[in-house]
Every structure is written in structure tokens, then in C-alpha cells.
């Protein structure tokens, strides 16, 4: 197996990794390499990652991740809890006094 990034075989492997959804295990079996070799070459030769790396601080909170993938549409306002008007505040309450 050639280790040069210019070889046609590595160009095929790189295409399969970067531009398809083919599982890494299938790419490795198809080209006769181990997954460790593929990971090593993709890091060494700076291939485009399939997913962004997880930051050292850990993954984002589920709320931040949800906002990133489903941003609030422009012009959309969330309703806040409103306090009842002064005329309705006393209704339905018992007074102990």
C-alpha cells in the first residue's frame, strides 16, 4: 500500500471518506486498509472531517445545540408569561383578612 497522498488509490479513499456517506469500515474493507490507517492519513494529510470535532470543554448543551440546528425564525417573538391585569388579580382568591 502506497503511503503518498498523491496516489490514485488514496485519492479514491479520500473521495469516499470526504464526499460520500459510505461507512468508514466499508471504505477500509474495500481498499484493504485498517480504520486506524485511514484515521492516521486523514489527520496527517488534513482531510476534511465528516463532523466537527467535539471541543475540549465538552459538547454544547442540548439547548445550544437545538438553537444551532433550529434557529428562531426572523420576526418570531416568544410569548412571555404575562401578569394578569390589576382588575383581574383579585378574582378567585380568598382573603383571610
Number of helical elements: 5
CA radius of gyration: 28 Å
The oligomerization state is: single chain
Rounded to the nearest angstrom, the distance between the terminal CA atoms is 90 Å
The largest sheet is: none
The gross shape turns out to be rod-shaped
Q: What is the ordering of alpha helices and beta strands?
A: HHHHH
In the predicted model, the low-confidence regions spanning at least 5 consecutive residues are none
Relative strand content = under 5%
Instruction: Compute the number of strand runs.
Output: 0
Secondary-structure-derived class: mainly alpha
Residue-averaged pLDDT, rounded? 79
Helix coverage percent: 40-55%
In short:
The protein has 97 residues and is mainly α. It has helices at residues 8-19, 24-31, 35-44, 62-69, 86-89. Helix 1 packs antiparallel against helix 2.
Amino acid at each position: 500500500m502506497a503511503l503518498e497522498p498523491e496516489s490514485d488509490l488514496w485519492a479514491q479513499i479520500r473521495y469516499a471518506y470526504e464526499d460520500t456517506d459510505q461507512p468508514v469500515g466499508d471504505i477500509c474493507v474495500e481498499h484493504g486498509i485498517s480504520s486506524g490507517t485511514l484515521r492516521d492519513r486523514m489527520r496527517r494529510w488534513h482531510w476534511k472531517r465528516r463532523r466537527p470535532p467535539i471541543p475540549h470543554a465538552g459538547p454544547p448543551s442540548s439547548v445550544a445545540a437545538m438553537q444551532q440546528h433550529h434557529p428562531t425564525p426572523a420576526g418570531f417573538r416568544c410569548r412571555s408569561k404575562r401578569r394578569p391585569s390589576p382588575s383581574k388579580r383579585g378574582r378567585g382568591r380568598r382573603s383571610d383578612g
